[in-house]
Specification:
CATH architecture of the largest domain: 4-Layer Sandwich
CATH superfamily of the largest domain: Ribonuclease Z/Hydroxyacylglutathione hydrolase-like
Number of domains: 2
Helix content: 25-40%
CATH class of the largest domain: Alpha Beta
CATH topology of the largest domain: Metallo-beta-lactamase, Chain A
Number of strands: 22
Shape: elongated
Distance between the termini: 47 Å
Radius of gyration: 24 Å
Structural class: alpha/beta
Largest sheet: 7 strands, mixed
Number of helices: 11
Strand content: 15-25%
């Protein structure tokens, strides 16, 4: 069923209530998601993006019912990943001559995924496509978040079709930002930015500034996942500019994995020391083996610094932390500090491994860390508490 967005623009996507893992198992979608596709019905009819592959047949059947495939004049592929382009496979089996407008990298990725030589029309920034009394303006947006990404802007209705930018993974029967719970919405928005767009923050800022330098009026932002921003759409743009500019709050996140609870006890006492030394700072603890990794990444994104701990295992660290540290390295966080801790029974190399990983990830490492042999006794717990106080002092003044 199509849903009216504005004038002759309709949402024709798919709400996926069941999805819990995305990008393989790399992104958790506790609240499901949507695959947003749009129809612009003017003198010419344009289809903007489509849906994920498993819903392709359903998508095309709905288009047939809603408008008829013969009436679709153009396809706009803002991004080639299968969650946005999967419905095109079924559609272009039926109507292979429909032109597909995309970037050069978009044509490359679509050919790579589907091995079809569709009727590609390669665009670049500034190109326009007339729909009659209105037109689409294309703006390349490489690395927001793929090399092939682009924006499409509809004149007259002043709608930006932003693809992955400004979206979030949120399944809701209320497709518009003013109709959903605002806390839940922005929780998913910042998680999306933290886990997907963080490494591209300089490009995010540059591209937003480039788009607004065109001085185009903006009434609606139609994303490819989650809500459509129709009420004060600039609010999510402002958030992106804030998040792209070395974002941090007065938070310190303690992350650990533990084998026989020694490292957990250390982490808890370090956290107590931080809180005692700086009552204004928000301190959270996470066991990396038991907590969703994307939720931890979101907390790291919001924090001015992190404290990471592991027991020593085979002269290294526990595997849940190894995977998390690889994610942290790839996300290229800026302007954050780190400290490390660990327990051991034999040799005690974990804090060295953690420290090297934090430095490699671009964190400002504070000191050499603290390690404790066997289970922490009262004296060891007190040392961890004092270490937490030192961390609070070293991390002060960072917000």
């Amino acid at each position: 069923m199509k849903v009216l967005v504005r004038n002759n623009v309709y949402w024709v996507g798919k709400i996926d209530w069941e999805l819990r893992k995305f990008h393989g198992n790399e992104y958790s979608t506790h609240s499901g998601t949507s695959y947003n596709s749009y129809l612009i019905i003017e003198d010419k009819v344009a289809l903007i993006d489509s849906v994920w592959v498993p819903f392709g047949r359903e998508f095309v059947a709905n288009l047939e019912d809603e408008i008829g495939l013969d009436k679709i004049d153009y396809i706009i592929a803002n991004h080639g990943e299968p969650d946005h382009s999967g419905g095109l496979v079924e559609l272009l089996k039926r109507k292979p001559k429909i032109p597909v407008y995309c970037t050069a990298n978009g044509a490359k990725s679509l050919k790579g995924y589907y091995h079809e030589d569709w009727n590609f029309r390669v665009i670049k920034t500034g190109d326009k496509l007339s729909l009659g009394s209105k037109e689409l303006l294309f703006v390349e947006a490489p690395m927001l978040h793929w090399p092939d990404s682009m924006f499409s802007y509809l004149s007259g209705d002043n709608i930006l079709f932003s693809n992955d930018a400004f979206g979030q993974h949120l399944a809701t029967e209320n497709l518009f930002n003013d109709l959903v719970d605002q806390e839940a919405l922005f929780t998913e928005c910042i998680k999306y930015y933290a886990n997907i767009l963080t490494p591209f923050s300089p490009l995010v800022k540059k591209k937003i500034e480039e788009f607004f330098s065109l001085k185009l009026p903006l009434n609606v932002i139609c994303t490819s996942h989650g809500v459509i921003w129709r009420k004060d759409p600039a609010q999510i743009v402002d958030k992106y500019l804030q998040w792209a500019d070395g974002y941090k709050e007065n938070r310190i996140t303690v992350i650990y994995d533990t084998m026989w609870n020694a490292t957990r006890i250390m982490g808890e006492n370090i956290a107590k020391g931080i809180a005692a030394a700086d009552p204004e700072v928000k301190v959270k603890l996470f066991n990396s083996a038991k907590t969703d990794k994307n939720d931890i990444i979101t907390e790291i994104f919001k924090s001015k610094g992190i404290v990471v701990g592991s027991p020593t295992v085979d002269k290294g660290i526990l595997s849940s932390l190894s995977g998390l540290l690889e994610m942290i390295k790839g996300l290229k966080f800026k302007g954050k500090k780190a400290a490390v801790f660990g327990s051991y029974g034999w040799s005690g190399e974990s804090i060295k491994v953690l420290g090297e990983s934090m430095a490699e990830a671009g964190f400002d490492l504070i000191g050499d860390g603290i390690k404790m042999e066997w289970q922490p006794d009262r004296e060891a717990r007190n040392k961890c508490f004092e270490y937490g106080k030192k961390i609070a002092e070293a991390f002060s003044g960072q917000v």
